[in-house]
What does this fold into?
Amino acid sequence: MSAHENLSRMMESGIVAVIRAESGELLADVAEALVAGGVDVMEVTFTVPDAVEVIREVKRRIGDKILLGAGTVLDTETCRAAILAGAEFIVSPSTDVEVIKLCRRYDKVVTPGVFTPTEAVTAWQAGADILKVFPADIGGPAHIKGLRGPLPQCRFMPTGGVNLDTAADFLRAGSVALGVGGALVEKRAVEAGDFGRIEELAKQYKQIVTDTRNE
It folds into this structure.
């Protein structure tokens, strides 16, 4: 699918699950639990050992049932490796214009990290699709609303600090999607193989998205 179609899918989902763990062995099982709970957009972070192989494995097992991306992408070398492994979107905690250009070349959705208006404008002008506001727990929903004031043309996705208590407020502030990590893919649930817990949390986040958008 094209970057335009995948961007639409991300925004329609409203939730981008951030998957990270000490081992990549269980992450395909985590991905299947997320899908069962209604979350079909997720990123495997490059803090996961052998992240490229994990992306390939998840892609092989689940395929088009999910939109799979790569996170914590800090440079063009990592970006290209992720894309060749099957990542359909690229997420970074920072803004690297060369990474944005590479994603444009390969027709992939790119979501660089920003925090200030200057960073947001720089990333947007370079061709970013969604701006990942990180860490979002510092400014909270008010920070998203503040950024959207002078930059209504930009799409924002808070990550870091998004949980069941804050998710609705981030959406009300104008976020097009929410990046949710440990509050959805709980470390202890992954380590225990408690995929039912992850599925249940996924259902709760999806319900918040549905309810808030229907207000």
In short: The chain has a mean pLDDT of 96. The longest strand covers residues 15-19. Residues 14 and 177 are 4 Å apart (CA to CA).
